[in-house]
Write a structure and sequence with these properties.
The chain is of the alpha/beta class. It has eleven helices and five strands; from the N terminus they run H-H-H-H-E-E-E-H-E-H-E-H-H-H-H-H. The protein folds into two domains: 60 residues, DNA polymerase, domain 1 (Orthogonal Bundle), CATH 1.10.150; 152 residues, Ribonuclease H-like superfamily/Ribonuclease H (Nucleotidyltransferase, domain 5). Helix 9 runs antiparallel to helix 10. The radius of gyration is 20 Å and the shape is elongated.
Length: 259
């Protein structure tokens, strides 16, 4: 989908992008080969060609920030799957609903095929440095919950430049509600061993751990791992479906996520 995206080009909005697609210009190369376009002067077209060349270089060098700064935040999903190896799926557990009434207890990060857990009073302070190796952040409701919590916990932390909040992306596709409900609707994700655990249980498990039950922390981390790792198949689904709706089934071959 990224190579079919024109929203990062100067003077191109959502309406113009659709018009270009309808003209059959469905990737950067086709657009760069056009000699003239209705409503665009030669100078504007030359500027677009320069931007397309810069985009090719940014993609070749895997610079997600170049695209993140030019695309609306709601369209950062278009960076997937080209930036899969620079993507971190993240979920946090807390003792409250806001940074003013609770603390971060566990942070799960899944990226490059590995899961890493960070625990308060153990190694939580290592999380910001670990996240610096990623350029795309994927959460569920993270723009409202996870990121503000982490910013309050680590005032100098700078999140990855691109952020895909699956709660709002999936809502555009007609799927609303909590993470577990959507997983069930789509038949995606694996919650083996943590069935029936919910947010309030996560608070209880942390309190039990603080009272000396080590097995409660292990269960909490396992629950957090499911919340984190399950984001990846949800993102794959959302990107495929958004691509299909925008460009049609014939363009899905451009979506190269591994099966």
């Amino acid at each position: 989908m990224l190579r079919s995206t024109f929203l990062h080009l100067p003077g191109v909005g959502a309406v113009t992008e659709v018009r270009l697609w309808r003209r059959g210009l469905t990737d950067w190369q086709l657009l760069s080969e056009e000699d003239a376009l209705p409503g665009l002067g030669s100078d504007h077209l030359a500027t677009i060609r320069r931007e397309l060349a810069q985009g090719e270089a940014a993609l070749r060098d895997l610079k997600a920030d170049w695209f993140a700064h030019r695309l609306p935040p709601s369209e950062h999903w278009r960076l997937h799957p080209e930036f899969r190896n620079r993507t971190a799926f993240l979920d946090i557990e807390t003792t409250g609903l806001s940074p003013h009434e609770g603390i971060v207890t566990v942070v799960g990060v899944h990226g490059r095929g590995e899961f890493r857990s960070f625990v308060a009073d153990e190694d939580l302070e290592e999380m910001p440095a670990y996240l610096r190796r990623f350029e795309v952040l994927v959460t569920f409701n993270g723009s409202v919950f996870d990121v503000p919590f982490l910013e309050a916990t680590f005032p100098h932390w700078v999140p990855p430049p691109a952020h895909i909040d699956l709660r709002f992306l999936l809502r555009r596709l007609g799927y609303s509600g909590g993470l577990k409900r959507i997983e069930q609707q789509l038949g995606l994700g694996d919650r083996s061993g943590v069935e029936g655990i919910h947010g309030l249980d996560a608070v209880r498990l942390w309190e039990e751990f603080r009272r000396g039950r080590a097995d409660s922390l292990a269960r909490l981390v396992k629950y957090n791992r499911a919340d984190t790792v399950n984001l990846e198949p949800l993102l794959d689904f959302a990107v495929r479906e958004m691509t299909r709706r925008l460009l049609g089934p014939a363009r899905l071959e451009a979506y190269t996520a591994p099966g």
